[in-house]
């Protein structure tokens, strides 16, 4: 195991600054997920750690050693790509051992490593098969096994599950989490899928425009997003937003948006807010509750999405559309008038001008 330290990293490609002054510390044994939309720089960052893209400026340390200009083969990393990149004429065993054979690793050592990787990834019955005889999930496990046999200090994953169907993604996600538990290795994983990020990560680094917007434990990032981008990017459905102002009321402050008034006296402000300040309130769908009976606020149901054990109810209120996660007994009918309440305990408040959490 090794830690990874990125300091003041700049990457310019084709005259365009992709990453500027980026800093990232990954501790030994951590599973850090780089999460963000396409084009945010997460794969570029991963490839620079792997040595596939040269840094324009800054340093990359792996295990306390400066690896900024080291060749990929000297960085003690195992890299798994989105595409399987298996040799079609070689069986599973030879695909997994190819790099070791090229490096002149003794045959008994190759056999030991391949056997161990095959056991971890449940590939023993498939070792003599060729890639064409494998499913997509099995091929990706072979690609992961090829990285494992290197017994690397750091494993890097570049959207390894994006080519798989939903069921296979779920299965392999579980296997990757178990793999991290078994190996205890340092892992850095790139994805745009927030479900993968939330379920796999020790910490999530949310990226936008080559900048890390927030890094922290999945629950912390979800519950206390640092800015409007993070708040809107995490969550399915996304966070509901209300624009309004802060007023004095109760034991502290009240957020008011039209007819809606939310007591935010409990809110942990980063600094004393200005009265009358224009702010944006964010409410997760699970904190916005529909009520078929009487309620203070009422909206009109515009869409219902059955999700098995719950429904996502979309409704219109004061010219805006909101989403709520509702149980079977709370489900309304399309175009029906419903009441709703807002649980203020998990509300997030953001400065409207800067977009930063207040």
From TrEMBL:
Residues 4-234 form the ABC transporter domain. GO terms for molecular function: ABC-type transporter activity; ATP binding; ATP hydrolysis activity. The keyword Membrane applies. InterPro entries: AAA+_ATPase (IPR003593), ABC_transporter-like_ATP-bd (IPR003439), ABC_transporter-like_CS (IPR017871), ABC_transpr_MalK-like (IPR015855), ABC_transpr_MalK/UgpC-like (IPR047641), Mo/tungstate-bd_C_term_dom (IPR008995), NA-bd_OB-fold (IPR012340), OB_MalK-like (IPR040582). SMART domains: AAA (SM00382). Gene3D superfamilies: 2.40.50.100, Nucleic acid-binding proteins, P-loop containing nucleotide triphosphate hydrolases. GO terms for biological process: carbohydrate transport. Keywords: ATP-binding, Cell inner membrane, Cell membrane, Membrane, Nucleotide-binding, Transport. This is ABC transporter ATP-binding protein. It comes from Pararobbsia silviterrae. The lineage of its organism: Bacteria, Pseudomonadati, Pseudomonadota, Betaproteobacteria, Burkholderiales.
